[in-house]
Write a structure and sequence with these properties.
CATH topology: Lysozyme
Number of helices: 15
Strand order of the largest sheet: 1-2
CATH class: Mainly Alpha
Structural class: mainly alpha
Radius of gyration: 20 Å
Strand content: under 5%
Distance between the termini: 30 Å
Number of domains: 1
Helix content: 55-70%
Low-confidence stretches: 1-49, 51-73
Length: 278
């Protein structure tokens, strides 16, 4: 387990929702002007900044990125990063910078899916394709009896701050063995003992292995969306409660129960993670 000091950070983190990243990192390492950083072309700027950060990161990580990879914005989302090779606050900043765009992409996917499902539910007469989409959603979110209200309440994404806090606590800011060997940031256990699907820890505890961090975040979100133990958490998310209130609904996630929520609260506050919520 990690100390409160390790959970904190001395400088302000990036602000994700505006698409702007830490100017100190960019300005000092790359020498960009304020005019460039404040460009009105927000989407192009966001992608470019991400790619430039990747380029600068390779200077001290030893990772080689070829030209074709730099042109692919999805590369940043799927890159395997050894967070243990980076020390202190820089590790935490990189961890957050890695997770923010991944969470934003998943949130957009689920919101789009939910809007499509809502439109189908509101229709009186549905095509076969629409019926199939609805049935697939019922199966995906494990909704019985075709309860549409339950389905919509399960199609949620926790606040970004809560996701980052849990990922950092469960993985030690990406440095745990299961994080390094299996991209598993949330301590998700595996029922499979196959080496391709799991990471063995100790004498016989197996954790899920993911191809990418993106897959790990998706599985974590779907676990909270489908499992009966998190029904109160989902209701609180739908009601718009922030992460500092939501943590009390995560006692079932860890054996340390209420202490788990207190540790998450410390991480959220110490790292100004609420700044990353919409």
């Amino acid at each position: 387990m990690y100390s409160d000091a390790d959970m904190g950070i001395s400088r302000k983190m990036i602000t994700s929702n505006s698409g702007q990243y830490n100017r100190d990192v960019l300005g000092k390492s790359m020498g960009f002007s304020a005019d460039f950083i404040n460009s009105e072309e927000k989407m192009r700027k966001k992608i470019f900044v991400l790619l430039i950060f990747l380029f600068s990161f390779t200077a001290f990580s030893g990772t080689t990125i070829n030209e074709s990879e730099l042109k692919n914005k999805q590369f940043y989302l799927n890159k395997r990063i050894d967070f243990s090779a980076i020390q202190g606050n820089e590790r935490k900043k990189l961890f957050i910078q890695t997770l923010v765009p991944i969470i934003e992409n998943i949130e957009m996917e689920i919101k789009t899916e939910k809007e499509q499902v809502k439109k189908i539910i509101e229709k009186g007469v549905r095509t076969q394709e629409e019926k199939d989409i609805l049935n697939n959603a019922f199966a995906k979110y494990k909704v019985k009896n075709m309860n549409t209200d339950e389905l919509l309440n399960k199609m949620i994404v926790p606040p970004t701050s809560l996701i980052i806090a849990q990922a950092s606590l469960e993985s030690g800011w990406g440095t745990s063995n299961v994080a390094k060997k299996g991209n598993n940031l949330f301590g998700m256990k595996s029922f499979s003992k196959e080496q391709e699907k799991s990471v063995k820890v100790g004498k016989g505890t197996y954790y899920k292995k993911y191809n990418t961090i993106d897959d790990s975040v998706k599985d974590y979100i779907m676990t909270l969306a489908r499992h009966g133990a998190y029904k109160q958490l989902r209701a609180a998310i739908v009601n718009g409660e922030n992460s500092l209130k939501l943590v009390k609904h995560l006692n079932n996630y860890s054996e340390i129960r209420e202490e788990y929520g207190r540790k998450l609260t410390t991480i959220i506050k110490a790292n100004d993670l609420l700044e990353h919520d919409a």
